[in-house]
Amino acid sequence: MIDEETRRKLRELNMGEMVEALDMQDSALSCMGMPFDDRMRMAVDYVYEEKHAASVKRLLGRARLRFPDADIGDMIYDGRGIDGVLIRETATCQFMRSAANVVVEGCTGTGKSFLGCCLAKQACRARKSARYVRMPDLLM
Description:
The protein has helices spanning 4-12, 16-27, 36-63, 84-90, 94-97, 112-125, 135-139. By secondary structure, the protein is mostly helical.
């Protein structure tokens, strides 16, 4: 169990998640008999996941997606003339690493905005920044 001074120092170092992880370990009886290395590994894993989730949440907020609940797994390919393999390949964000662009064009109501939001969300999950901008706003 850590004392209040150590908690204060951890929070001052912006490691509030570490305090949470250690508190969770203190409250779990199963962690009491574990070696120090295992407990430390669990705490670091918890902090890493919390920081990663916060980073993704921050990037998604900045992206200002029109459809924030859009997910690549929710895409419907039947009857739209969309190549599912190409979409799933694009969702890996490999095009960003090779500095390529993605242009989505089509008739009104075919799901271009939804697809753009899906790709932006995938980019945010890969910890890349994205921004949803409509074409008229982009031209201005």
